[in-house]
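INTERNAL AUDIT FORM
Audit reference: QA-55
Scope: verify that the stored structure record matches its stored sequence.
Auditor: D.O.
Record contents follow.
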Amino acid sequence: MGVFSKLKRTDDMEKATDYVGGSFLLDSDIYEAKVLSAYTDFFASGAQFVQLKLNVKKQDGNWQEYNERLTVTNKEGSIFYKSKDGKHVALPGYQLLEDIALLTLGKAVDELDTETKVLPIYNAKEGKEVPTEVEYMSELVGQEILAVIAKVRANKQEKGDNGEYINTKEERHYNALQKFLDPEFKTTVPEMCKAEEKNIEIKDVTPKFYNDWIEKFQGKEQDKYVEVTGSASSATFGGNTGSTATAKSKVFGRRSA
């Protein structure tokens, strides 16, 4: 077993749900992707992250590398937070990792194997890449997946006097992973679980999330920018929303790389 076997779970977490909510940036779309690398490490705060590198096929047929850091625990090592109504909800980064593990390997996160490797990783203090020991997730490398990636407009943030980050009037544009889908059937983890519960073949399942997301978001920048007038509220957009860890089901099987 790997380092994920020690993650702090809870027995009463909500099941995962679906919600459609000039540069090297990708346009908002659902991309064919292959995992190039994946390793896990820790922030200075103690929170655990997974650095995921994908190769995604763009609309013009060319491939582009895409990197995203998924925060999979808080600083206490827990994979969930409590929602306003008191439910245990998985962190979005953890849910993404759970989805890709289930869809490609048929494994839950805490069943993923890791191996210690030394990789050249950028070190902010050194200002360059330095050899760094990390836990590498070899079995994910080479796996194919559909990646839901949004182009987002939002506020730049800066650290306030209380140490917390606050919105500024400046804007930024970035990409964000919102979901992983089965590469063959275009279905989500919840859709596949529901199909199994109803004894429906996956090939007969309508990929509702895929269809809805494409209609609503394809090619559109999702706007999370808020006017800064002393206080601001957050906007929401499609993807993993209060999704929570999903128990492994027999509907998920390992795919060959």
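Auditor finding: record pair retrieved intact. Residues 30 and 148 are 4 Å apart (CA to CA).
Action required: none
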